[in-house]
Amino acid sequence: MFDSYKDRIQSYCEEAGIEVPVGFGRHATGRYVAIDEESLPHKLVATTWPNRKEAVNYLLNLAVGRRMRILDFKDRCELSFDGKASLLKCGTF
Fold first, then answer.
1. Has this prediction a pTM greater than 0.85?
2. DSSP states of 10-79
3. Which of 7, 60, 69, 9 is nearest to 39 (CA)?
């Protein structure tokens, strides 16, 4: 299952012009990804997460103040971070 996420994520990034870092895919690829929208071109964060809790932890501790786009590649939806502890569905892709 993780390999299918890796392939889906890479294809999505290639089509959208999002830079994929060299370290992406070195570890198991989870369904949740973050895209740094402050980088030009936009850049995929090399780490992915298998659950919402880990993605929220990243946003609270390592991405504070950065404009990030969060995507769920299982449900094919975009998520919005409420700034506290939740990721809320805000669209599809």
1. yes
2. HHHHHHHT-B--TTTTSS---SEEEEETTSSS-EE-S--BSSHHHHHHHHHHTSTT--EEEEETTTTEEE
3. 69
Write the burial class of residue 81 (CB in 10 Å: 0-12 exposed, 13-18 middle, 19+ buried): buried
pLDDT mean for each 10 residues of the chain (93 residues): 83 97 91 97 96 97 94 97 95 94
Three-state SS at 37: coil
Is residue 64 within 8 Å of residue 34, measured between CB atoms?
no
61, amino acid identity: N
